[in-house]
Amino acid sequence: MLPQEWMELKQYIVDHYADKTSTEVVRLLSTNPMRQLYPNIAELAEVYRTIPPHTADVERDFSQMKTIKTCLRNRMTEKTLDAIMRIVIEGPTLKEYPFKKAVEAWAIKKNRRIKL
User: Fold this and answer.
1) What does the pLDDT average to over 17-38?
2) How far apart are alpha carbons 57 and 50 in whole angstroms?
3) pTM, rounded to two decimals
4) What is the Cα–Cα distance from 8 to 27, expressed in whole angstroms?
5) Could you give the CA distance from residue 35 to residue 111 in angstroms, rounded to a whole number?
């Protein structure tokens, strides 16, 4: 099935989209009509779009990890490291972070008053 789809798609691209770049063709395969015509190739195109074209992002993530897990923090659990890494890599910038909302959410979690 896949080889037949591939042969048909190659001919279709030559006939209709010869002037397009490979990136444009992959994006085109994500549209609904193309997904119906070439479901297996469209699925492969989606997988292709998720693979990073270079290792710079991965290298940047490892550099971030080295700044988080230092000699002084060597007993950090994997779960904690994962949580901090997600915040550093995917979280908002300091300018965008809603500090007031975060403090309010933290305050209502439980009563933090010290009884004297």
Assistant:
1) 87
2) 13
3) 0.44
4) 18
5) 54
